[in-house]
Specification:
111 residues, flat
Length: 111
Amino acid sequence: RLDEAVQCYRDALQECTQQRAPMQWAMTQNNLGGALLRLGERGEGNARFEAAVGAYNNALSVFIASSAIYYLEMCWENRDRGIALLAKRRGSAMLPPRPPEPADTPLFSGL
């Protein structure tokens, strides 16, 4: 059923584009990342983990630009979990640096 969910999210992304509805697109990217992450946990290889991290990064680009702090933090945690699972699968404990906190970015300076 998760394979079906992944396909549904991908189909939804064809209709709900980043240009037409950026927040809905980003939330769908986040949900796609979650489904891919769970499939990655159940399967072999790294491709689904890598795709999940990519989907989370796509979502983060919109959440950062929109100053959507709740969704930004949630998505960061999801992405960090995906990176950790990918590192574990690869046998590496290294994580990339975390993006700057919202208060440290110009987008959030007026809050």
